[in-house]
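U., I forgot to send this yesterday:
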Amino acid sequence: MHIYKTQAAGSYNYGFLTSPAVDIRSNTSYTYEVKAKVGPIDKTQFPDDELKPAAGDEGGYEGNQIAFQLNSKLMSVYVTYGDETKPGYVASHIIDGTGIGPSTENRKPLNTSIDHTYRLIYHSYKDCYDVYVDGDLYFEDIQLINKESGNVAKIGGESWQRCNLYVASVQLGTGDLNTGDKPAIATMDLSSDSHVNGNERTIQVTAQTLNVADGEKISVKFTDEEDEPLLDAVRNDRTRWNRYCRPDHTCYGVDGKIQGYVIACW
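Result:
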């Protein structure tokens, strides 16, 4: 599929290839994958403007958008043309005050003239997404943008964006298809991060885990402000520990480890 759009203006000129509506479940992670390459746009005939023009005015910039809308929110990534000599870039999205566009900070150079697999992984438990290119993590924990519309895949450009994109394949699946069934800690919280010296106090640690079987051991380490260990707690329960912190120390943090996967909560 070839998507080619050079007409650009402040409004009423968007052009997207969209999928039929998809049944999206709440509290479910999704992986959206598009294999594509970018073609050049004549910048002499169609020069890039720095910003989106005002409504009704002509003009715009190159912005090949690969996106998916789910539950009235948008996750997307932008790519521009480039080759081995002069790379283009891949960038996460932003709201720049006037509309959706590519981030000027969250971008990396890439030879986009050849096929790449762009994978957007939505994590329902923290309501954000990661961007992978050919299996390599490019951007992490990107916030979705509120977008009232149906649950559809959309590839192309906003009214003020030009695109020249060759799409080889589009796929969507439930779950995190990049990490699969690897165990991980989603969240970890402390009931308190300090106490008065000389007073015994219970510090409760609560962890939300992914793909960890009941009875799997999870280790917890309490540390002081110098990251020196105070005591260790291990329990065959994947959700909660109850232990006493020594009264002559202050507990500042906790490290949790699952089969080599480590998360810190401060």
